[in-house]
């Protein structure tokens, strides 16, 4: 059956990097049926909305979605609920893609590009599983109240239900099962929380423990406070295998981990829901307005996001492996965009990866 792939190039460098991903997909999966739609600021400019119902329906009917990035200073004055970033939150929430996979993998050729010394990052391979559709980013009530005495109060609500914790923890355990053979201090799933000071953290830890006992008792499981994990990531990151984190801690820990791999331009991500839900794939970086339109963006994160789509949504591990190996080979051969200390343009980097294919 024909598999359908929706491209949402978005704003800033989004269209530049997704174009290279599309070129690579054309080589390894020429039978995919592509469609493309406006999203984020580009959609706002045309339709007055960052995500139209039509595009949302198109997304629901696709097998996989590749998003570039959204937002930028151009839309800074737009009402909050119409901002490009709100389109992205809505897409994630509507698709209910609750498990955000953010691999922090250091390609051998980039071990010297990391912010840590080579010995700490050579062979680094961490998978962060971040809860994406609940927690403090979505909890109600939230708002800014005027207290009437010259003071204002801003508040958010960090809350999780047991099923929200269990379903994302299950994904983390399943992933850890497929990554056997890791040593180190934290060899399996390491669940992060702030159960020392937060009730939602207490529930998080209790539900992870229960699920582990019921379904994954043979898998290693550790618990660590989220701040201690932040320290561990810069102390001895290779000791870590799979990190399970809520929406907020996962956001922070994955940016931290990204720096270990050389450049934010290298990091892909996947957002997955229940079986049958289209996966939403996107580079971890944003629209990079400072370099947009100049052909300077590193397309690797977008290309590796396409790689994740082939692996996690389209059941094409062979094609995914080809992309993975080609990116590694191109880097070994010295292909570098500016963020990696080189001088290649976005499309030249795409050329190098296609040549390696
Ligand atoms: P950013 O990730 O766009 O840029 C941070 C820095 O990294 C910049 O110096 C940029 O030039 C560089 N950079 C990012 N991607 C790169 C690449 N592929 N190659 C080379 N260099 C790269 O984050 P920033 O500046 O905080 O946000 C810019 C806009 O993007 C904002 O409007 C923000 O809301 C939006 N954003 C959107 C995201 C998304 O669509 N998922 C995620 C993060 C930010
Ligand atoms: Mg973030």
Automatic annotation (TrEMBL):
Subcellular location(s) of the protein: Cytoplasm
Sequence positions that bind substrate: 92, 102, 130, 227
Primary enzyme class: oxidoreductase
Co-factor binding comment: Binds 1 Mg(2+) or Mn(2+) ion per subunit.
Keywords: Amino-acid biosynthesis, Branched-chain amino acid biosynthesis, Cytoplasm, Leucine biosynthesis, Magnesium, Manganese, Metal-binding, NAD, Oxidoreductase
Catalysed conversion reaction: (2R,3S)-3-isopropylmalate + NAD(+) = 4-methyl-2-oxopentanoate + CO2 + NADH
Lineage top rank: taxon: Bacteria
Coiled-coil regions listed in the entry: none
Protein family membership: Belongs to the isocitrate and isopropylmalate dehydrogenases family. LeuB type 1 subfamily.
Protein name: 3-isopropylmalate dehydrogenase
Organism: Hirschia litorea
């Amino acid at each position: 059956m024909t598999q359908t792939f929706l491209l949402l190039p978005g704003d800033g460098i989004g269209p530049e990097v997704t174009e290279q991903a599309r070129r690579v997909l054309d080589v390894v999966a020429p039978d995919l049926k592509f469609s493309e739609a406006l999203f984020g600021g580009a959609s706002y400019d045309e339709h007055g909305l960052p995500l139209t119902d039509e595009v949302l329906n198109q997304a629901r009917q696709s097998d996989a979605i590749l998003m570039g990035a959204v937002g930028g200073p151009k839309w800074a004055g737009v009402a909050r609920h119409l901002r490009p970033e709100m389109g992205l939150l809505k897409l994630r929430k509507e698709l209910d893609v609750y498990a955000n996979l953010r691999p922090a993998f250091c390609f051998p050729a980039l071990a010297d590009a990391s912010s840590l010394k080579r010995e700490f990052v050579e062979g680094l391979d961490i998978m962060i599983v971040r809860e994406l559709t609940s927690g403090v980013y979505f909890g109600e009530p939230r708002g800014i109240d005027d207290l009437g005495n010259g003071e204002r109060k801003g508040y958010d609500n960090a809350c999780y239900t047991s099923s929200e914790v269990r379903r994302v923890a299950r994904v983390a355990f399943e992933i850890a099962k497929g990554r056997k053979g890791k040593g180190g201090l934290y060899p399996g799933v390491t669940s992060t929380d702030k159960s020392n000071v937060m009730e939602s953290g207490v529930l998080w830890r209790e539900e992870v423990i229960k699920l582990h006992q019921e379904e994954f008792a043979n898998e290693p499981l550790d618990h660590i406070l989220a701040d201690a994990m932040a320290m561990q990531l810069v102390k001895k990151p290779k000791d870590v295998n799979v990190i399970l984190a809520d929406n907020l801690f996962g956001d922070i820990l994955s940016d931290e981990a990204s720096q270990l791999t050389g450049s934010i331009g290298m990091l892909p991500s996947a957002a997955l829901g229940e079986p049958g839900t289209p996966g939403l794939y996107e580079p971890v970086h944003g629209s990079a307005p400072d370099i947009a339109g100049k052909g300077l963006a590193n397309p690797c994160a977008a290309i590796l996001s396409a790689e994740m789509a082939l692996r996690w949504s389209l059941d094409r591990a062979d094609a995914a492996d080809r992309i993975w190996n080609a990116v590694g080979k191109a880097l070994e051969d010295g292909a570098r965009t500016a963020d990696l200390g080189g001088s290649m343009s976005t499309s030249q980097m795409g050329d190098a990866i296609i040549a390696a294919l």
